[in-house]
Structures are given as C-alpha cells and as structure tokens.
Design brief:
The chain has 103 residues and is an all-alpha fold. The protein has helices spanning 9-22, 29-40, 45-59, 67-93, 95-102. It is built from 5 helices and no strands.
Length: 103
Amino acid sequence: MARPSRYPLELRRRAVRMVAEVRDGYPNETAALQAVTDKLGIGSRETLRNWLKQHEIDAGTRPGMTTEESAQLKAMKKEIAELKRANEMADSTGGRKEFCELL
C-alpha cells in the first residue's frame, strides 16, 4: 500500500495552477517550478514537476496513464490477487476439483 501524500490535494492543485499562471514570467519551466516550490514550501521541484505531468496526462494534453486508469488497474490487480487466493484455497481443500467434476 502506498503511503499517503504529505501534501493535501488542494495544495497540489493550487501549485499546478500557479505554475500555469507564472510560466511566461520566467525564462524556462524549471525556473517557474522552482519559484512556485519555494513560495509554497514544497520539498522538491521534481515533486511539483510530477504533479504537473500527471495533470497534463489527466487533461489529455500528454500521453500516459490517467489517474482514473491507474485506480482501475490497481483495483483489477487486487481482485485478481483475491481470486488467485480463493482458487488456491479451493485447490488445497479439493473443493474446486469436486465442483468441476459435477459440471
């Protein structure tokens, strides 16, 4: 299980908006990211860069897996693991074999 973010969702959204607003006032994106990072007290410029990248993916302006797709994939993997455990338990008790013979 992933650890919870130490930055609230609203702070992350605000930081992404601020980068979009101030980007033109700096010579490059890195300088804009650093300015917003310093202003909001975010630990690392790369943290903000990752938030910005994910926002662009979610908005459809950059290729990649959206937050929603990632959540769906995580849920599917969890379900598969549960089904595998259930099958292993049924195999160990012979329950699945008996059920298959009935069909």
